[in-house]
Amino acid sequence: MKYSTCLFVLLALLWSKKLYAYDIAVENADGVTIYYNYTNNSTELAVTYGASDYRTSNSYKGNIVIPEEVTFMNRTRKVTSIGERAFFRCNSLTSITIGNRVKSIGESAFEGCSGLTSVTIGNSVTSIGAEAFMKCTGLTSITIPNSVTSIEAGAFAHCYGLISIIIPNSVTSIGYSSFFRCNSLTSITIPNSVTNIEERTFYECNSLTSITIPNSVTSIGDYAFQNCSGLTSITIPNSVKSIGHNAFDGIDLQIVVSEIENPFEISGKSSDYYSTFSKNTFNNATLYVPKGTIDKYKATNGWKDFVYIEENKGTEPDPIITKRTIHVPKAGTLSNYISQEEKYQIEELTLTGEINGDDFGFLREMARQNNMTGSPFGDKTEGRLKNLDISGTKIVSGGTYMIEDRYAIFDMMSLDFCLESDDEIPAYLFDGCAILETIKVPDNLKSIGFHAFDGTTWYNNQPDGMVYLGKVLYKYKGDMPENAKITIKDGTLGIAGLAFENCKNMIAISIPNSVVRIGVFISRSETYMISNCGAFYGCSGLTSITIPNNVTTIGYGAFSGCTSLTTVTIPNSVTGIGGHAFDGVDFHTVISLLVNPFDLEFEIFSKNTLFNATLYVPKGSIDKYKSTEGWKDFLFIEEGLPTEIRDVVGNKTTENRRYTINGEIITTPQKGINIIKMSDGTTKKVLIK
User: Fold this and answer.
1) What is the Cα–Cα distance from 345 to 254, expressed in whole angstroms?
2) Comparing 21-194 with 478-640, is the CATH topology the same?
3) What span, in angstroms and rounded, lies between the C-alpha atoms of 303 and 283?
4) What is the rounded distance in angstroms from the CA atom of residue 452 to the CA atom of residue 431?
5) How far apart are CA 109 and CA 132, in angstroms?
6) Are strands 465-469 and 472-477 parallel, antiparallel or unpaired?
7) Which of 566, 495, 506 lies closest to 533, judged by CA?
8) Residues 6+ apart with CB under 8 A from 75
């Protein structure tokens, strides 16, 4: 009887214990099952793991989207949290999107998810739990939304692949060891809302080359930056009241700037294993202190161990940052990763990630040309940028930058440009930035705006002739010989604006089929004349041009002023033609192979062309052309091809014999009227111009 009673109690205990860690399992619309527990008196849901033990769960794989709400048994509940260890060591998890109803990410929620490469955090999350993303070694970047107020201890520790992270000003607390041994981290901005840098927060982040401590910080904890060996300088704001032992140990700093008016004691170099700075820093770095405080520092424990102490009289040059590598995860955010102070200290910069017009404006200032609204245009900055490598970036459209129109192209003092296209370097970008010595660009760069690199040391050092930047022909430099016939090299993707400006001696040019863009598109808020910024502007000696059938863009003013041209053929590959593209050219014949014509911008063709030239269009498309903006302005539109080239594109009849108007047999076309006898017995007259 006693045995039976014990067995009953044991079975009851087993029955009462959940066999699984979750309360419900619900399949998403994409077919992925997510496991939940009831929270907040069963009115809300928290994501959890799908087994009895989180250590063996590994329930989630691939791309996971956490919904904002879930319906189960006809009851709909909001998903408001990611539970502790919900995705613990789910190594096959590659991407996670957290819904906008989630408010918290629990402790170790994604710990050990080594395959995770993409994280999107919803804009309701306020806290990221301890060790939440620890050992997510596949993560390279993450953006924290401005709803987050706290990042708990070890949240991103051992994320060895993490290159960059944006922390918004909403964050007031960053826990200890949050970025412990993130040894690929190159840049991070600590917001002004943070008051304490906790123990080991950035321990052994040895790829960090700079760090800005905001003047809101009052304490720097033990080991906070220990072994961040990439740092060469540090500035400590006057707000700091305490610095823990080993905070900057293991770093051979060259410059230490202390803005602290009343220095407090720190651990000196005689403190055995607990000195605040390394012995090499104490013995070799220059400590700059506020004017009038040098005696205080020389009398204060720890600070007095610096061999070289100088008062900052306001005349010392800013420290030079020789080299930086920065990953920009989102276009337009470069300024988040380089402080205003560092902006004018960096000599060599390598960027990866995405950049746009906003970032280009920032780079322009780094290369000593002002870009700021309200400043006198053309003013120089104190920038030091000499070597720029953007070969690892993706250039995307969007963003604006401001420049001075020193060439008076637009009759205006200043211009506000928008980057119109992907894979493009905009006009004027580094114009006059004499300090810029080298530039590396992406392999897929397709266009460069006019004057983008004029006046740089890089351009001035190029030999005369055709100057290429990457796979774009930037410019013909120097004087062109008379009757020049130019061949652009195979593999070229684009021809820059003003590449052949006023090359009147050029009579012929061969453009390879690899070219996809001729010139660039640019936008401004008001109508303006830009006919004199095209790739072939003013090439009045050019008598013919063949636009390759891979070209998609014919840029603004591309052939403006090419007055000797009489015929042009526009291939079906073209998707955009910029304003004034053929301004000042009086064509006799325009052949458009576009099956579906698009609207044309203003004044692409001259009035003489519109009123006198014949526009030949594909068969069956004449009504489209007659109803499409720009094309419908042609007075003479015909379907098919001109007689003299019709046979080349597949007409069934062929030419048997050709005569002059006087009846003499000729073997090649001659100017004037040619009489042609066709293979079908018909005869026709053709005017050869």
Assistant:
1) 14
2) yes
3) 12
4) 5
5) 5
6) antiparallel
7) 495
8) none
pLDDT tens track for 377-434? 445 778 889 999 999 999 998 887 655 544 433 443 445 556 778 999 988 889 888 8
Question: Where exactly are the structural domains of the chain?
Answer: 21-194, 344-461, 478-640, 653-688
| CATH number of this structure's domain 478-640 | 3.80.10.10
Over residues 455-474, the pLDDT tens digits come to: 898 998 899 999 999 999 99
Here the tokens at position 144 are 């924290």
- Residue pLDDT, tens place only, 266-275: 998 877 678 9
Which CA distances in Å does 376 have to 429, 430, 569? 17, 17, 45
Amino acid found at 283: N
User: Which tokens sit at 518?
Assistant: 């001729």
Report the distance separating Cα 450 and Cα 448, nearest Å: 7
Residue 143 has pLDDT above 70, yes or no: yes
- Give the containing element (helix H, strand E) for 57: helix 54-57
User: Candidates 3.40.640.10, 3.90.1150.10, 3.40.50.2000, 3.80.10.10; correct CATH number of 21-194?
Assistant: 3.80.10.10
Q: Which of 277, 339, 347 is nearest to 305 (CA)?
A: 277
Residues forming a β-bridge with 354: 394
- Separation between Cα atoms, residue 457 and residue 438, nearest integer Å: 8
Helices (H), 587-654: 607-612, 622-626, 643-646
pLDDT band at 158 (very low <50, low <70, confident <90, very high): very high
Tokens 């300090």 correspond to what residue?
A: 435
Residue 14 has pLDDT above 50, yes or no: no
Closest by CA to 302, choosing from 343, 260, 344, is: 260
Residue ranges with strand state E in 379-537: 387-395, 400-404, 414-418, 424-425, 438-440, 447-448, 465-469, 472-477, 484-487, 494-495, 506-510, 517-518
Are 158 and 177 contacting, i.e. CB atoms less than 8 angstroms apart? no
Q: What is the pLDDT of residues 237-286, one digit of tens each?
A: 999 999 999 999 999 999 999 999 999 999 988 776 789 999 999 999 99
Claim: this prediction has a pTM higher than 0.70: no
- 529, 481 Cβ separation under 8 angstroms: no
Output the CA–CA distances (angstroms, integers) from residue 465 to 255, 474, 486, 668, in the order listed. Answer: 46, 11, 10, 35
Q: Give the helix/strand (H/E) hosting 26.
A: strand 24-27
